[in-house]
Amino acid sequence: MTESSPSDPMLQDPPESAKSDGDQNHLTENILNALRQLQQSGSPVPPTPTQQSSQETQVSLTKQETTPQPQSEWERLRAQLREKPVDADSWLKLVDLAEESGDIEKIKDTYEGMLEIYPNTPSVQIAYLQHFLDDPTQYNYAETLFKKFLLRTTPSVELLKFYLTYIRRITKGPNAREVIQKCYDFALSHASQDKDSYDIWQDYINFLKAGETKTTWEEQQKMDAVRRAYQQAVQIPMENVKRLWEDYQDFENGLNKITAKKFISDLQESHMQARTVYNQLQDHLSVLFPPTPPPKGKRPAIWLPRPPTFNSGDKTLLARWRQYLKWEESNPLLIEESNKNTCVQRRVSGYSECYKLPAPLVQAAPRSSPPRCLPPGRSRHPSEPAGRRPRRVLSRKNPHLRASQLPLENMAFLHRTCPQPPPSVRSPTHRRNRDELPAEYQHRHS
Is pLDDT at 279 greater than 60 in this prediction? Predict the structure, then answer.
C-alpha cells in the first residue's frame, strides 16, 4: 500500500469553520434533548427571552386593571349620602357638582336620589324638570316627570304654574285651546284656593277673554265663562285679590252698568271677607317659612328642610303651625255645607304647606278632622259672632279631592328620615313670641 501524499484531500484535516458548525449542531441537539426530557418529567420549562417579556407585560396589565381608579368628588359625596341621606347641605353641593359636570346621567341620579328623601319639594322638582325643556327630544322624559310629580301627591301651586307655562309653550294646532283649557281645569281643581294662585287665575281669565267667537251666542257663552271665573276668584283669600276685584268691576261695567250693580253688590260682602281672611292668613304664614334663598345661575332656588333639634325655637315654630291649622279648620271663610269640596280643598292647601317646613315637626301637628262647613240652614258656627252672612262660593265639582286623600296620608317618609319629637313637643304649647323662633326664620321679619 502506498502512502498518501499530504496533498491528498481525503487525508487533510477539516477546516476550522466546519468544526465550529459541527460543534454548534451537536450543542443544539443536546439542548433540544434536554428540553424534551424536562417536558417529559413535568419540570417547568425555562421561558425564552421573548416569552418572559410577554409574561411581564401581561402581569403589568393585570395589575393596572385591578388597581381601582380614584373616585371623583361627586362619587365620594354620592356614596356618603347613600349612607347618611338626610343632609341638606351635602345634597345641595352634590347638585352643584352634577350640574357643573354636564353629565345628564349624574344629574338624573342626583335629583332622583334627592327626591327620594324630599319627595314633595317643588323647588327640587322644578330644577330637575328644567334640564329637559330646552331640547325637544327630551320632552317625553319631561312629561314623564310631570305625570310623576303632578299625579302622585297633591301638587304645589309653584309646580302647577311651571306646568301651565310648559303646556302653553309647546301646544300648537287646531285643538290647542281645548288642551290648554283642560290643563287649566286640572290646575284650578288642585290650587284654586291657594293664597299664591293669583297668577293662575289671572292667566286663566285672560285665556278665556282671548277666545275667538263667530256668533252672538258664542260671545255670550264666553262672557259667562269669564264672569264665573271672576266671581270665584274674587272670593278667595289670595294675593292681589283686590286687583282682581277692580278688574271684575271694570268687566261688568263694560258689559252693562245696570246689571253690573247687581252682580257687584251680591259679591261685595264675600269679597271683603276674603280680603280680611287673607290678612289673617298672612299673619299666620309669615313666620312659618324662612326666606327663599337666591337662585344660583339659571337654576331656581332650592330650599331643603333641616332636621329639627326640638329646641325652644322649634317648639315655638310647632306652636305656630298648630295655631295656623286650627285656624284653617275653623272655616274662617264661612263656607257652606253645600260647598264641601271647597272646604276640603282649603284643608288640602293648608296641610300641603306642611311639606315645606322642617319635616318631623309635622308629626306633632294635629291630625285632620272632617271639614267643618256650615250646615244647611245655619248662618254661622256657634263660635262665630252673630250678624255675618255665610260665604257663598261659586265652585265647580271636584271629584279628585276627598277628605280621605288629605296629604297627611302621604307623610310616612317623615318617620323614616327624622327622629320622633320628644313628649314635651307633642303636648300643647302656649303662644310664644316671634323672637323665640329659629334663627333662620327671624331675619325674614327684621
Answer: yes
